[in-house]
Each structure stands twice: as C-alpha cells, then as structure tokens.
Amino acid sequence: MEESANAEKEKAEESKPSITDGSQQVRQMWNTLWKLNIKHKIKIFIWKCLIGALPVRAAIHRKTGLGDPVCRICGEEQETVEHLLLKCQQTQEVRKVAPLQWDGAVDQQGDFKRWWVRISEARKRPKGMEHIGLTANILWQVWKDRNKKEFENISSCSAASTIGKAQKEWLEQEESLNTKTSLSPEETTSNIEEHYQGQAEEGTIILDVATTSHYDQVSLGIGVIAMRHPSIRLVEWALKERSLGDKAIDEAVAIKLVLCKALELHWSRIMIHSHNQELLRQLKYKSPSNSRLATLIDDILNMQKLFRMCLFCLVKEESIVRSKRLSSHALGIIVDEEWNFLSDTEH
Ligand SMILES: [Zn+2]
C-alpha cells in the first residue's frame, strides 16, 4: 500500500509542469540574465548556478567521491546550490535583512533554476531589472562569504554586512551605467565556422579540444590546449568527467567546460577547434538530436554570448593530435591537471 502511495506521489512530482530548456520561459530567463546591469563575474556566477557548475561540496563529492558533502556553515544538510543560496540558516538570516523579499518564489526553492526563472519574471515590473540585479549581487556575496569560510577559515560575516556589500557592489555598477556602454549581444560575433581557413586574427585564443572515452568505461577524458594566435602557449588541461556514452554529448560537455574556463580567465576572443562534425553541425543549425544534447547546446550558445567573439571550427583530427593525446592521458588521472604557461600579464 505504502509503495503504491509513494508511486502516486512520484507520479504527481513528475507531472509538475517541467521547465525545459527550449521553453519560452527559460529563453526569457537567459535573455534577462544577459541584459542585467551587473558585473560580468556575477553573471557568470549565476550562469554557473543555473547549469549546475558551481563547485559546492555536494557536487564535488558526487563527481570525485572526495571531501564531505555537508554544509560547513550549518552542518545540517548537504551543500547543494539550493541549500547554500536559498535554504541554509545563514542565508535565511541574510534574506531577513535584505531590502527585497522573494516570497513569491518560495515554493521553487527546491530547484535553483526554477527559482531563478520565477525571480526573472520581475523584469516586467517597474524596477524589476534592478531588483533582479540586486538579487544576483546578494547571492554572489553569500557565495563569497562562504568561500572565505571555506578557504580562509574566516568566520561568517553578519547578515547585515553581507547585504551591505551586495548593495555597494550593485550601486557601483548602476552608477557606471551611464559612463560605459556595454557590448550588446548583437555586437558579439558568434558564428560557427565549418572550415577553418587559418585566418584567426592575432591575439585570438585558439583552444584545441579533444575527448577520449572507452565504450566500456564511464570516464571521459578531455584534453585542451590553449594558444594565443599565432604561437604563444597559454595553458593546457587534462580533465576527467563522466562519459554519457555518446560522442557528440561528450564533446559538448567538453566544450562547455572549456568555455567556462575561458570565461574565468577573462578571454574575450576565442576560437574552439573541434573534430566532432556532428556536434558542430548541431550547434550551427541549433538542431539537437536529443534532449540531453539540447540542454548542452543551449548552455553553449548562451555562454557564447558572453564573449566578444566565440567561434567553433571544425578541424581535422591530425591538427589536434596533442590535445587528443592529453585526453587519453586524462582518462587515467584522479584530479584534473593544468599546465600553465601564462605570465602575469596574460591574465
Ligand atoms: Zn547550511
């Protein structure tokens, strides 16, 4: 009996209107995010929260089996994005003193993406964009405070000071609105080059991306070589992820990760070299062959807008032989590896 009651409950959960990536709602949410007048790093932070790329304890534990997944602030639950940014005791305190309330989204707290979609709906209201921007700044401060505790062992800031810092940072950005004109998405070059003719401009960062997986293993090895055109070595990565058993999907996972790293390094003009014709074709025509790939393609195309220029180029396998080698090396590693050739001025 109990089992069937549970099954009923699960069924009810499933039949909740689901939030799909191609939906109007989600598209508007992304558009709103890119338009917010907030610092670039905060946009990237929210973006990471939305795609599940924020390195919270639960995510690290799930991926590597290392560390303790429990929240260090309250010690009561696993540290997921939802717990840390929405539910943790400490965050609740911050929210009590915030100049904004988020009561309308309280039923969505179990899923950060749904919650943010709901928050983004404020765009239509007077001052809505400002409120969303301030919300993003508050979440960012919560994350920064968490990192201070995590890495510097500095005990948590008071809720009022967290809000104070968020407001200060947000106001600075608001004030700079009139003095700076930011790049609109229309100005961003975002093409997909089927065949790369070698005409990269000097200074463009070229990223050779290759993946290796074994059909009987769950691991995905990713090898990346970044060069500043024409010939300055910047950085190389060997990364290990979980293989999803499909070459195009694995390659999409790799490209998404690489875009993430490129954004963190503040690279603004990049060119991704990939040997996966299938994925590049699907990126170009936005015609994903399945829903898992659709989500990844949406993520990639959304991230593309954060660059001044971001091109995807199909290259022959021979020309990315070194990153291919790195990707098979990555299959055997436990912790991601990085070789950094950047001088300080390159940052
Ligand atoms: Zn907590």
TrEMBL record:
<feature type="region of interest" description="Disordered">
    <location>
        <begin position="1"/>
        <end position="23"/>
    </location>
</feature>
<feature type="domain" description="RNase H type-1">
    <location>
        <begin position="213"/>
        <end position="326"/>
    </location>
</feature>
<dbReference type="InterPro" id="IPR026960">
    <property type="entry name" value="RVT-Znf"/>
</dbReference>
<protein>
    <recommendedName>
        <fullName>Reverse transcriptase zinc-binding domain-containing protein</fullName>
    </recommendedName>
</protein>
<feature type="compositionally biased region" description="Basic and acidic residues">
    <location>
        <begin position="1"/>
        <end position="16"/>
    </location>
</feature>
<dbReference type="InterPro" id="IPR052929">
    <property type="entry name" value="RNase_H-like_EbsB-rel"/>
</dbReference>
<feature type="domain" description="Reverse transcriptase zinc-binding">
    <location>
        <begin position="23"/>
        <end position="93"/>
    </location>
</feature>
<dbReference type="Pfam" id="PF13456">
    <property type="entry name" value="RVT_3"/>
</dbReference>
<dbReference type="Pfam" id="PF13966">
    <property type="entry name" value="zf-RVT"/>
</dbReference>
<dbReference type="InterPro" id="IPR002156">
    <property type="entry name" value="RNaseH_domain"/>
</dbReference>
